[in-house]
């Protein structure tokens, strides 16, 4: 069965815009689960631009489905993961200056370091997923690390400027999925998926979980706006 991991990072982005307490991504995770999320994904960035350490600790206590902690393969993050024990960790690349995660990890280029990180996490019973592009050598290197999963970066597919390029990117994802499954890896995907472009990715044979965030948070803001304004009118009359 194809499952949905709801990424709540950008609920925290709104909170951090004011450094206040609302909206709380932990509350958003509870509501996402009520809505049918099969898992909750949160990315603790080294620069703490959205999700904070406190969020991860509270998510660990409150998430009833599974918690996927996205993080860079640094000593600081490994020690947080070993302490919090999420249900799985997704290792992702990070650049301070990027607006969002721009591409996949270069597994082949830092194989020994990543093998070590995967081993330390998986020895603590935390399965590891590697966020990579659908590239043959990266998939092969991912299998060499003994990680349980890969997550195929769907950004190029999502950002394709025309249907021909989108179809070509979808083919790469399909081939990547096949190759990974043949190497014994489980396959997730995500990044930039929307209500409009998600369906073909979900149809890829063997695809297990899609991690989707920005578009769900964006839609939640819009579908919730009418009620939020009505409630403020009540509050202004002392009736809320
Ligand atoms: C790792 C990834 O795919 C990102 O989608 C992330 O989880 C969302 O956060 P950023 O937009 O800060 O990269
Ligand atoms: N790993 C991808 C993810 O968690 C969500 O990405 P996006 O939907 O926020 O682009």
Automatic annotation (TrEMBL):
Catalyzes the complicated ring closure reaction between the two acyclic compounds 1-deoxy-D-xylulose-5-phosphate (DXP) and 3-amino-2-oxopropyl phosphate (1-amino-acetone-3-phosphate or AAP) to form pyridoxine 5'-phosphate (PNP) and inorganic phosphate. Its main location: cytoplasm. 3-amino-2-oxopropyl phosphate binds at residues 7, 18, 192, 213-214. Pfam families: PdxJ. Its EC number is 2.6.99.2. Pathway: Cofactor biosynthesis; pyridoxine 5'-phosphate biosynthesis; pyridoxine 5'-phosphate from D-erythrose 4-phosphate: step 5/5. 1-deoxy-D-xylulose 5-phosphate binds at residues 9-10, 45, 50, 100. It comes from Crocosphaera watsonii WH 8501. One of its GO terms (cellular component) is cytosol. Homooctamer; tetramer of dimers. Belongs to the PNP synthase family. It is found in: Cytoplasm. Keywords: Cytoplasm, Pyridoxine biosynthesis, Transferase. One of its GO terms (molecular function) is pyridoxine 5'-phosphate synthase activity. InterPro entries: Aldolase_TIM, PyrdxlP_synth_PdxJ, Pyridoxine-5'_phos_synth. It comes from the Bacteria. This is Pyridoxine 5'-phosphate synthase. The active site is at 43 (proton acceptor), 70 (proton acceptor), 191 (proton donor). The record marks 151 as: Transition state stabilizer. It catalyses: 3-amino-2-oxopropyl phosphate + 1-deoxy-D-xylulose 5-phosphate = pyridoxine 5'-phosphate + phosphate + 2 H2O + H(+). One of its GO terms (biological process) is pyridoxine biosynthetic process.
């Amino acid at each position: 069965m194809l499952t949905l991991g709801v990424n709540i990072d950008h609920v925290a982005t709104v909170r951090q815009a004011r450094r206040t307490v609302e909206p709380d991504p932990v509350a958003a995770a509870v509501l996402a689960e009520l809505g049918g999320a099969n898992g909750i994904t949160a990315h603790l960035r080294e620069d703490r631009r959205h999700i904070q350490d406190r969020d991860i600790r509270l998510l660990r206590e409150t998430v009833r489905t599974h918690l996927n902690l996205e993080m860079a393969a640094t000593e600081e993050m490994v020690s947080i993961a070993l302490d919090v024990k999420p249900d799985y960790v997704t290792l992702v690349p990070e650049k301070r200056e990027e607006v969002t995660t721009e591409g996949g990890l270069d597994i082949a280029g830092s194989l020994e370091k990543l093998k070590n990180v995967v081993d330390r996490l998986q020895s603590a019973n935390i399965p590891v997923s590697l966020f990579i592009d659908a590239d043959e050598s990266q998939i092969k290197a991912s299998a060499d690390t003994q990680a349980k999963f890969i997550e195929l970066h769907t950004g190029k597919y999502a950002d394709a400027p025309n249907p021909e390029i989108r179809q070509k990117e979808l083919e790469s994802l399909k081939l990547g999925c096949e190759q990974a499954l043949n190497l014994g890896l489980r396959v997730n995907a995500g990044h930039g998926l929307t209500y409009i472009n998600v369906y073909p990715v979900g149809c890829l044979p063997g695809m297990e979980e899609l991690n989707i965030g920005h578009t769900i948070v964006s839609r939640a803001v819009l579908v919730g706006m009418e009620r939020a304004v009505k409630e403020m009118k009540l509050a202004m009359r002392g009736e809320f």
